[in-house]
Specification:
This protein is 54% helix and 13% strand. The chain has helices spanning 2-31, 37-64, 85-96, 108-120, 135-148, 171-199, 220-241, 280-292, 304-313, 316-326, and strands spanning 76-80, 100-105, 125-129, 153-156, 202-209, 249-256, 259-260, 278-279, 297-300. The longest helix is centred in the first third of the chain and has 30 residues, at 2-31.
């Protein structure tokens, strides 16, 4: 990783120096001849070819060579929604790897139970009762934590799901679903991002859902929030990438299928015998393994991203025909195009 950073900085420094050379010497000379775009096009085309070649070489190298995993020992990791489900398993497994885990949950009893379980295994953990949808609570608790320790990783996991048609949900509850599944993630990440930028180090993880990649009936507000979370993380990743000061701050988006946490409904699709829901403990293990490899995207199961990309390439009528075939038991099977 250090060699990669040194190489990237050398290339960046050379590119900046050449750009200054263009602006001082080449642009004025070419500008008199109405050809000021020629040196810019030449440089950009050369950089494009160089990037394509280096990216291809790196892709082949990653395929042939085993990926290295970063150590989490000594890291301070914040996990929201740590009282149950995926959050609970992530907190416990992070602690087993030597990290100090800060647990946030609005249910004090469940949150304290997780903290006690980690401490019984000689792990370091601290618990805070926080409702992540309340801006004042998030900012005040985050400020108190920053005075004690530097949070090096934020795992924004808290979420809520209700399966019902949109017309059966009250406007207040729709707003709550949007707050929990989208705005809360933004508030939590925004509270700790400035300190990461100041230290030029950090990792931001957002636990999303496959519903953020593909629409689902009877989950309209949830899908809208998760799609928004995908857009937020993609934009944040691009924002951090374009700033050389923040290129050591990694981002990871996790897209979960059906996980046995009690939050998701029981799978009833046609291929449930091939793939049903997986235990939260196994899902947490896969997530942590991907985080340690600095993966930008983690899908559980792994083929979800491929299927959704393929789905988005299809015409609308083909999509719904295949969805109705896949979801044999739902009411769409009796509908026609």
């Amino acid at each position: 990783m250090q060699k990669k950073n040194i190489f990237s900085r050398i290339i960046g420094a050379l590119a900046r120096k050449f750009r200054v050379f263009q602006e001082i010497w080449l642009f004025p000379w070419f500008g008199k001849r109405k050809l000021s775009a020629v040196p810019l096009w030449t440089l950009d085309t050369f950089v494009l070819i160089l990037k394509l070649c280096s990216t291809s070489i790196m892709a082949v190298a990653r395929t042939l060579l085993p990926e290295t995993k970063k150590s989490l020992y000594g890291e301070t990791i914040l996990v929201t929604g740590a009282g149950s489900g995926i959050g609970r398993e992530l907190a416990i497994q992070f602690a087993e790897l030597g990290a100090t885990v800060v647990c946030w949950d609005k249910d004090a009893r469940r949150n304290n139970t997780v903290v006690d379980e980690i401490r019984k295994k000689d792990g370091d953990s601290f618990g805070y009762t926080v409702d992540v949808t309340i801006r004042e609570q998030v900012s005040s608790v985050a400020a108190s934590i920053r005075r004690l320790a530097d949070v090096t990783m934020v795992v924004s996991n808290a979420g809520e799901l209700t399966c019902a048609p949109l017309t059966r949900l009250s406007p207040e509850y729709v707003a709550k679903l949007i707050e929990v599944n989208l705005l809360a993630h933004i508030l939590v990440i925004r509270a700790f991002l400035p300190s990461m930028i100041e230290r030029r180090y950090g990792h931001i993880v957002a636990i999303n859902s496959s519903s953020g990649l593909m629409p689902c009936a009877d989950m309209t507000p949830y899908c809208a929030a998760k799609s928004g979370l995908k857009g937020f993380m993609d934009s944040l990743s691009e924002e951090l990438r374009l700033d050389t000061w923040t290129d050591n701050i990694n981002t990871t988006s996790v897209y979960l299928g059906t996980v046995a946490t009690g939050l998701y409904p029981t799978p009833n699709h046609r291929f449930v015998s091939w793939y049903s829901d997986i235990p939260a403990k196994e899902a947490a293990r896969i997530i942590i393994e991907g985080i340690r490899k600095n993966k930008k995207c983690i899908c559980i199961p792994s083929y979800v991203k491929f299927l959704t990309d393929l789905y988005n390439l299809m015409p609308y009528r083909i999509r719904i025909v295949l969805i109705d075939f896949f979801n044999f038991g739902h009411r769409g099977w009796f509908c026609f195009c």
